[in-house]
Write a structure and sequence with these properties.
Length: about 210
């Protein structure tokens, strides 16, 4: 199967698929990161699917659904995925795979290897996050990545964000005349406070 995948990629490069036909000026030779080998670990399924989705859109847009599914399977091995992968390959050979698109296949992959366990892993990661020496911009991006798929939302998400940020900024926002309410307001105002504080520190150091 790997030989078929390499031939497919070579054909796509030669045809320019993923370049001008999409209206992009990036060109067919733009480098796109390939996914790391996925072994079925629940906490990694989200990142694996995201990387696969980007590569499929940028490099294999003109491939058939079967070819796209085979490409994804070529990056799955070890752990709990081997048996599942073999079952899918057998169905492919028998023409029994019912997915109408690669996206539908990726959704089934997430259901198979993510599920509640993935949510638990993401939730645990979210609860451990602390700003520490990071800028608020860095912390917010890290927090958003962990929050996606964690099951946290609304007030619970705000509380976890408040717990993770540095105490000085948290106190200023809580004690403000109009404290932030939504998570987006917390992101925005915490970032502004942190940026102003760092700029003041730099000014003091120059004096």
């Amino acid at each position: 199967m790997q030989a078929q995948i390499q031939a497919l990629l070579a054909a796509q490069r030669g045809a320019g698929v993923g370049g001008e036909a999409t209206g992009s000026n990036l060109g067919p030779h733009m480098k796109v990161a390939e996914p790391a080998i996925f072994n079925g670990e629940a906490g990694k399924v989200g990142g694996f699917i995201t990387t696969c989705r980007l590569f499929l859109r940028m490099k294999l847009r003109g491939a058939t659904v079967e070819e796209q599914v085979q490409w994804v399977l070529s990056y799955m091995q070890g752990g709990s995925v081997d048996v599942w992968k073999e079952n899918v390959m057998e169905k492919l050979e028998a023409g029994e795979v019912e997915c109408k698109s690669a996206e539908e296949f990726l959704t089934s992959l997430r259901k198979e290897f993510g599920g509640g366990e993935e949510e638990s892993v993401k939730a645990a990661e979210l609860r451990k996050l602390e700003q520490g020496g990071k800028t608020m911009e860095e912390f917010v991006q890290e927090f958003k990545r962990a929050a996606c798929g964690s099951g946290y939302e609304g007030r619970l998400l705000v509380e976890e964000f408040k717990q993770g940020m540095n105490g000085g900024i948290r106190r200023k926002l809580i004690e403000a005349e109009n404290p932030p309410a939504s998570i987006e307001q917390w992101y925005r105002r915490a970032t502004a406070l942190d940026r102003n504080w760092r700029e003041s520190r730099r000014e003091e150091e120059r004096l």
